[in-house]
Amino acid sequence: MIYQNTLAFAKNLDEQDEIKDFRTKFFIPQHNGRDTVYLTGNSLGLQPKSTAAYIQQELNDWANLGVEGHFHAKNPWMPYHEIFPKQLSKIVGALEEEVVVMNQLTVNLHLLMVSFYQPTAQRYKIICEAKAFPSDQYAIESQVRFHGLNYEDAVIEVEPREGEHTIREEDILNTIEQNKDSVALVLFGGVNYYTGQVFNIKNITEASHKVGALVGFDFAHATGNINLQLHNWNVDFACWCSYKYLNSGPGGVAGAFIHQKHITNKKLKRFAGWWGYNKETRFKMERGFIPIPTAEGWQLSNAPVLSMAAHKAALDIFDEVGMDRLHKKRKLLSSFVLFILDDINQKSNTQTIEIITPRNENEIGCQVSMLMLKNGKQIFNALMQQGVIADWREPNVIRIAPVPLYNSFEDVWKFGDIIKQIV
Predict the structure, then answer these.
(1) Which positions ≥6 away from 224 have C-beta within 8 Å?
(2) What would the mean pLDDT of 259-265 be, rounded to a whole number?
(3) Above 90 in pLDDT, residue 384?
(4) pTM higher than 0.90
(5) Checking DSSP bridges between strand 125-129 and strand 155-158, what pairing results, if any?
(6) What digits encode the pLDDT tens for the residues 232-258?
(7) How many Cβ atoms sit within 10 Å of the Cβ of residue 261?
(8) Domains of the chain, start order
């Protein structure tokens, strides 16, 4: 497609957009009585207008039924979490039995590392991306120390090459091969939170398994964003949050994936809880943990129904729109952003913006990260003052993420027009 940096062109793209009406299903934050240009779905997705009714239903059932709501609510609370595998399996490319909604992301990461990071005297190292999201860094550090290991010895961080911002896939694969006799676990983010780089999940998984290592992913910035085929790619485990691209509210309930080949393995070590116990005999309250033979077997506690109601409201919208249409629009939005920013740079006297997100369509999702070469914080503040809600990351990066569910091509053009005036 040949893009144009004009409002008329953006509006024409919006007219042709087959999912444009889904924007009306979300509340758009206001600025001076007008819709903001909201470009931070990579940090917190917008609220579906249906969310309040979904939560209110559970509040009404709690008020009217009390404890009996577990069995007699409109959506009985006892099996409430069983709603989600069918919906999420389409989003992450999994079998229904491989998916469970529970806890928060980093809680799930710890629980899964209990099972899938089992260091031995020979195999004990973890390969991860340098400067992963801090929660991942802290989880990895505390896990290796829990096993009595030193971070400096047990953890190998793959970094961008000098002068580069993203990690070359060949460097990841070479690091795995070079440590083939000592690596126990390869643990990456699906999308780097800072640069927006999408990693080749399939190739990383294959390389890890080839040397005898297990592999897991943090999909906080990937789920609901990029195309995922976790079952077919043979990923061992993954976890994600629901408050970014899944639009399920701040601190919303998280999700986890455990591959089919692992879910019935009772010998896998795990931290157990009542809600992961065999459903048929759970209420006998007996000693000795017998896990549910699905991903549900990693659950600890009963369902946080109010948070799950918000999650259900959002996933029902995903069911309606379908992932194929979302991916199609996402690619067009990202390409339009790159075109707009390139146009601004070409027409500027001095280059102010360096795009550090890869341009290859297989390495970019919704997020585009802009390295500000001068006056970055001032430019960010000016954007906010003019109704553009973007995201600042120290020391000098502005992150934006046009989300196909509720962002328009006109949003992208407006962002470009405002930043052009500021620059």
Answers:
(1) 45, 91, 244, 245, 246, 247, 318
(2) 97
(3) yes
(4) yes
(5) parallel
(6) 999 999 999 999 999 999 999 999 999
(7) 11
(8) 7-47+322-422 (3.90.1150.10), 55-320 (3.40.640.10)
